[in-house]
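User: Design a sequence. Structure:
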């Protein structure tokens, strides 16, 4: 396997991409008999006008972590959820995919740097830390370079991240989504079978409105909403442990009720979470005995329960 240069890796992948050539293969089929079954399937497919969902090779369940808004703690939640799933059951393999093309944060949160190796079949090998294989746009472009890409380039990058990563086998792939309800969210929901979405919200009204939008979008594209996590719900003073509900105590619970979705848990606003995240040492790993880590493990257990419910 050869290491990749930063941007060249993406261009190289684009050039070698089997997906890029997918269109050409059809032309080689012309003139051959495609059979009534295939034609019927194609007809049904075209009639629906949607891209065909194709599982990510080797991945059993995909859980997306989303919200309509930035800065509510999606990435922090995604990282600690992945680690929590593994902490609760170390026999399970869990991966992390950073789908935030413009603002990737998994490299920093997971303390990972470098360019992925390529397998012989030109698939990228995820970088691994704390037992979690990770893939992010941040591994492919310079850390300092602003990622100012137009829609098509974003879609092309996303396609590489979805289709050209060698995950091996994974029980769960946790996907850290970009903020909002745009092309990336739609593209993921339409191209791969998503087991369910975890919506992150802070208890502020405005964030709740965005969370509502996020939850409704997933419903429209038939992705089960696993539930809502209330992040930064209560401030726990690191000195005296006094708890203050800064934004109100049960906004997300009420929203979950209103939307008819499950409430998955509360994550406290805690200095330790922020500081450890900034150092690339997520609390589930760095402070496993803390109440914060316990909150994430509880969240992981609640998510798993919902995965089992929606998978039957
Ligand atoms: N529960 C929490 N307690 C303290 N800080 C948090 C918590 N959740 C997230 N943060 C901090 O908030 C900021 C935004 O979090 P991030 O996960 O990057 O949000 P998003 O992915 O939604 O943009 C980061 O500095 C992170 O460390
Ligand atoms: Mg983020």
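Assistant: Done.
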């Amino acid at each position: 396997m050869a290491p990749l240069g930063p941007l060249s890796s993406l261009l190289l992948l684009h050039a070698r991409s089997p997906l890029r050539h997918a269109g050409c293969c059809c032309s080689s089929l012309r003139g051959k008999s495609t059979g009534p079954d295939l034609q019927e399937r194609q007809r049904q497919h075209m009639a629906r006008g949607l891209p065909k969902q194709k599982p990510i090779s080797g991945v059993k369940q995909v859980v997306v972590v989303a919200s309509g808004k930035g800065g509510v703690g999606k990435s922090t939640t995604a990282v600690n959820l992945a680690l929590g799933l593994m902490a609760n059951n170390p026999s399970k393999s869990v991966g992390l995919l950073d789908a935030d093309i413009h603002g990737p944060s998994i490299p920093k949160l997971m303390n990972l740097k470098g360019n992925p190796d390529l397998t012989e079949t030109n698939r990228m090998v995820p970088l691994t830390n704390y037992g979690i294989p990770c893939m992010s746009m941040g591994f492919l472009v310079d850390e300092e370079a602003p990622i100012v890409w137009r829609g098509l380039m974003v879609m092309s990058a996303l396609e590489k991240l979805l289709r050209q990563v060698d995950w091996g086998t994974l029980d769960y792939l946790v996907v850290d989504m970009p903020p909002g309800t745009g092309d990336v969210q739609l593209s993921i929901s339409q191209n791969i079978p998503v087991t369910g979405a975890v919506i992150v919200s802070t208890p502020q009204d405005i964030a709740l409105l965005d969370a509502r939008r996020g939850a409704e979008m997933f419903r429209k594209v038939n992705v089960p909403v696993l539930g809502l996590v209330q992040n930064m719900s209560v401030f726990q003073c690191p000195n005296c442990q006094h708890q203050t509900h800064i934004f109100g105590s049960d906004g997300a619970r009420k929203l979950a009720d209103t939307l008819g979705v499950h409430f998955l848990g509360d994550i406290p606003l805690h200095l330790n979470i922020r500081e450890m995240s900034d150092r690339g040492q997520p609390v589930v790993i760095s402070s496993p005995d803390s109440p914060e880590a316990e909150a994430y493990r509880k969240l992981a257990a609640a998510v798993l329960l919902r995965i089992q419910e929606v998978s039957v």
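Residues 1-33 have pLDDT under 50 and may be disordered. The radius of gyration is 20 Å.
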